[in-house]
Automatic annotation (TrEMBL):
The name this protein goes by in its record: Fenitrothion hydrolase
Organism: Actinokineospora spheciospongiae
Keyword Transmembrane: yes
Transmembrane intervals: 17-39, 60-79, 91-112, 133-152, 164-188, 227-246, 266-292, 304-328, 348-372, 393-412
This protein's UniProt keywords: Membrane, Transmembrane, Transmembrane helix
Coiled coil: none
Top-level lineage group: Bacteria
């Protein structure tokens, strides 16, 4: 199974690495300068923005399709061949579902919330079990559940095992169906990592709900403003960002050479090395963000919760990094979803190295530009008068640095 999401080498970049780094950083800086000159008052309207539209939403059909797809997936994962070459279940799970959540959510909004088969099954089971009040846990259960998936995919060493994937999805489904039945549908907003991930990505969709419940066409940045910074939301986004950093690190020669050396001897197994690397990458990402917030805090109004104030601005970066690290993986590994059944081979000529590099670098840069725009608008609301510009410097420095690091990681240097 191909889990290499990076380019695999500097020579794959269509331009020299130094030029890509400088161009990416310059794009973020120029966008900031333009914003400070032309965007002098808050413009984003959040849940109040958008133009009402009439679109049919087949809720029942989505629920039925979701349950049928889950049943079909589990039947193939448990009953099909045990090798990945002849069983499409891993490709369906990683490429079709996990990566597919991004384009679907960007285009159609949080449709996974409607189609989520675990919600549907929990609603049925909920009629048979006593209901309890959902504790004030914020989004931390979603952080735990998504970390379990990311560990399986990136660090476990068993990501290409058909039966391990079957076990994971089965256990994940049982846990969340039972929790959803006991605590009600609100559990999935707080505890289902895949659903929360879809909702965050869908905040950038041009389709959304206004405060009065109407379906609207909106500025995607207005959608970001609607995100509620509950406890655990910022760590959730930082977890996704940190996992892509770790994924990029595993494509570097220094990581490859560390496997099988004294580093692996120190921790015992490659899974242990991967687990430590994943945790360290997430922790480093979180510390970088916390440091920028600490430097920003003196310029914020006293009523502003500094750590969560800019959580929504991280979402475009999260999406950009996801595109950068999974684009080629989705195209190539996604083909296994049908080649495993038909016996055909994967066509690796569909994408050139130059096109992959352009999409990866473009995704990172565009994500940071959108993040800078959203952060600028929020800064105009939350920074103390007279500090609207200087107060943005710490977050700007973080985003410029992240742009450079992101481009360097996908280059595979």
């Amino acid at each position: 199974m191909i889990l290499a999401h990076g380019l695999g080498g500097r020579s794959d970049l269509p331009v020299p690495l130094w030029l890509a780094l400088n161009a990416g950083a310059a794009a973020v800086l120029v966008s900031f300068l333009a914003l400070t000159a032309l965007w002098t008052r808050p413009r984003l309207r959040g849940a109040e923005g958008g133009r009402a539209v009439r679109l049919p939403v087949p809720r029942v059909a989505l629920k039925v399709v979701g349950v049928l797809l889950l049943a079909g997936f589990l039947a193939v994962a448990w009953g099909g061949p045990s090798d990945v070459e002849h069983n499409p279940a891993p490709a369906w799970f990683y490429a079709w579902f996990w990566v597919g959540l991004v384009p679907v959510s960007l285009l159609f909004g949080p449709v996974w919330r409607l189609a989520n088969p675990l919600r549907t099954l929990a609603a049925g089971l909920g009629r048979l079990v006593p209901r309890r009040e959902l504790p004030a846990v914020g989004h931390w259960p979603a952080v735990v559940s998504l970390f379990a998936f990311l560990w399986l995919e990136l660090a476990s060493g068993f990501s290409d095992s058909v039966r391990v994937v079957a076990v994971f999805v089965t256990v994940y489904a049982v846990v969340h169906v039972v929790a959803g039945a006991v605590f009600g549908p609100g559990w999935f907003d707080r505890g289902d990592g895949f659903e929360l991930y879809s909702v965050l990505v869908a905040a950038l969709s041009p389709l959304g709900r206004r405060a009065d419940g109407a379906l609207v066409l909106r500025n995607p940045l207005d959608g970001l403003m609607t995100l509620q910074a509950r406890s655990g939301l910022t760590p959730f986004v930082l977890l996704v960002l940190g996992s892509t950093v770790f994924d990029g690190l595993t494509r570097l020669p220094v990581w490859t050479s560390a496997q099988g050396t004294s580093v692996q001897e120190l921790f015992g197994t490659s899974a242990a090395v991967g687990t430590v690397g994943l945790v360290v990458a997430v922790a480093a990402t979180a510390l970088a963000y916390a440091g920028a917030i600490r430097l920003t805090r003196p310029y914020l109004r006293r009523s502003v919760a500094a750590y969560d104030a800019f959580a929504h601005t991280l979402v475009p970066i999260m999406v950009g990094y996801t595109v950068a690290h999974y684009f080629s993986f989705a195209v190539f590994e996604g083909q296994r979803g049908w080649t495993a059944l038909s016996g055909a081979s994967v066509d690796y000529t569909l994408l050139s190295a130059g096109l992959i590099a352009a999409v990866q670098v473009g995704g990172i840069v565009l994500g940071h530009v959108l993040a800078v725009t959203s952060a600028h608008d929020r800064s105009l609301r939350d920074l103390r008068p007279g500090y609207e510009r200087v107060g943005q410097y710490p977050m700007l420095a973080l985003m410029v640095g992240c742009t450079a690091v992101g481009i360097a990681l996908v280059s595979g240097v």
